[in-house]
Amino acid sequence: MFFTETKLAGAHILDIDKKADNRGFFARIFCARELAEVGLKPDVAQVNLCFNPTQGTLRGMHFQVPPATETKLVRCTRGAIYDVIVDLRPDSPTYLQHVGVELTADNYRALFVPQMFAHGYQTLTPDAEVSYIVSEFYTPGCERGLRHNDPKLNIEWPLPINLISDKDSQWPLLDEAT
Ligand SMILES: Cc1cn([C@H]2C[C@H](O)[C@@H](COP(=O)(O)OP(=O)(O)O[C@H]3O[C@@H](C)C(=O)[C@@H](O)[C@H]3O)O2)c(=O)[nH]c1=O
Fold first, then answer.
1. Low-confidence residues of the chain, pLDDT below 50?
2. Digit-coded pLDDT (tens) for 42-55
3. The whole model's pTM is what?
4. Which residue of the set 82, 121, 132, 148 is catalytic?
5. What is the distance between the alpha carbons of residues 162 and 164, in angstroms, rounded to a whole number?
6. What is the distance between the alpha carbons of residues 23 and 44, in angstroms, rounded to a whole number?
7. CA distance 131 to 54
8. Which of 62, 98, 119, 148 is catalytic?
9. Residue 41: what pLDDT?
10. What is the pLDDT of residue 177?
């Protein structure tokens, strides 16, 4: 795998290293040793699968607080998504900054989300499927969220928001939360 660190320290884009032959190719999409070599936490508590029939669906921005903070390794296995992370580490020089990456079934790209980052995505195609590894178990009492359109975050979503859950449209704005 090829690792490219984003401007948010610890958040990496992962590209596959294709071993091609006349049958097609082979590639690793998860390797605990390679992740550990670049300092990433390779724990696996859950592998989640999510299907989104409607183009422009938005899910996020989600994170879990202690003691259930989590890392995620996010991949789009069908269609395409715009995947966004927000740095919520208060002592980070990039606190509240975000990065957006296009993950598609065709580019085989994945995004590693460190602990204490909010995560969300918008589907760029109909029938987009997302699969992600999570390092901690889903813990509803520790679940928190940011508003996808919080002016303090200023995230430019590529498409109009065609579908969003009630929960996600009601997360507090940062100004309300503090
Ligand atoms: C995340 C999750 C949800 N659920 C349940 C709760 C609820 O009944 C249903 C749908 O939950 P949600 O609306 O939270 O699903 P969703 O909005 O897809 O939540 C996910 O969004 C992306 C952006 C993330 O980063 C993930 O970590 C996760 O928070 O599934 C689980 O049972 N286990 C889980 O791990």
1. none
2. 799 999 999 999 99
3. 0.97
4. 132
5. 7
6. 30
7. 17
8. 62
9. 77
10. 65
Q: Which two tokens stand for residue 11?
A: 């958040």
170: CB partners within 8 A, 6+ apart? none
pLDDT at 42: 77
Is 50 close to ligand 1, i.e. is its CB under 6 Å away?
Answer: yes
Q: Using CA positions, which residue lies closest to atom 33 of ligand 1?
A: 138
- ipTM greater than 0.95: yes
CA distance 32 to 21: 25
Ligand 1 atom closest to the CA of 70, numbered from 1: 27
Give yes or no for a contact between 86 and 61, defined as CB atoms under 8 angstroms apart. yes
Query: Distance (Å, rounded) from C-alpha 103 to C-alpha 135?
Result: 20
Fold of 44-172: Jelly Rolls (2.60.120)
CA of 50 to the centre of ligand 1 (A): 9
What is the predicted pLDDT for the residue at 160?
98
